[in-house]
Design a protein that fits this description.
It is a single chain. With 132 residues, this protein is of the alpha+beta class. Strands 2-1-6-5-4-3 form a 6-stranded mixed beta sheet. It has one domain: Nuclear Transport Factor 2, Chain: A (Roll). A hairpin with a 2-residue loop joins strand 5 and strand 6.
Length: 132
C-alpha cells in the first residue's frame, strides 16, 4: 500500500474538521482533486452529480458559518488497491458535531478513484452515501 494514498485520504477527511478553531478552506479541498474530478452522492434513492466546486462550496460555507460546530469526519476502516498510477480506496467513516445546537452524527461509505499525476496522488472521482 502506498503511504501517499493514506496521506491524501487523511487530508481529505481533515479538510472537514472545524474543531479547536480550525477554519476549513476551499483551497485545501481543491488541492486534493484533479481539476475535472466528479463527485457523486447517493441520497434518497437518487444520485447527485457534482463538480468539485459544487461539492466544496456549500460544505466549506456550512463549516465556517457557526451552524455546524465541533465537526469532524474520520475513517473507521478502509481497503486500498493500487495499480501502477491508479488506485481505488473504499473508506468506511463516521462523523460527528453539533448542527444548529443539536447533536449531529452518522456513518457512511466513500469510494475514491485516485490517479498519480506528476508524482502526486489526486482524487479523480468520489462516490459516497451516508447510512440512513
Amino acid at each position: 500500500m502506498d503511504r501517499d494514498v493514506d496521506e491524501l485520504i487523511g487530508r481529505f477527511f481533515g479538510a472537514f474538521d472545524n474543531r479547536n478553531g480550525r477554519a476549513p478552506k476551499r483551497a485545501d479541498l481543491d488541492a486534493l482533486f484533479l481539476e475535472s474530478a466528479i463527485i457523486l452522492q447517493g441520497t434518497g434513492g437518487k444520485t447527485l452529480v457534482m463538480t468539485v466546486s459544487e461539492f466544496a462550496e456549500p460544505r466549506v460555507a456550512l463549516l465556517n458559518s457557526g451552524r455546524l460546530r465541533n465537526f469532524s469526519e474520520w475513517e473507521t476502516a478502509n481497503t486500498t488497491q493500487v495499480f501502477s498510477n491508479f488506485g481505488i480506496r473504499t473508506s468506511r467513516y463516521s462523523k460527528s458535531g453539533t448542527l444548529d445546537s443539536m447533536p449531529y452524527a452518522g456513518d457512511g461509505t466513500k469510494l475514491f478513484q485516485l490517479a498519480r499525476v506528476n508524482g502526486q496522488w489526486r482524487i479523480a472521482s468520489l462516490c459516497w452515501y451516508d447510512e440512513p
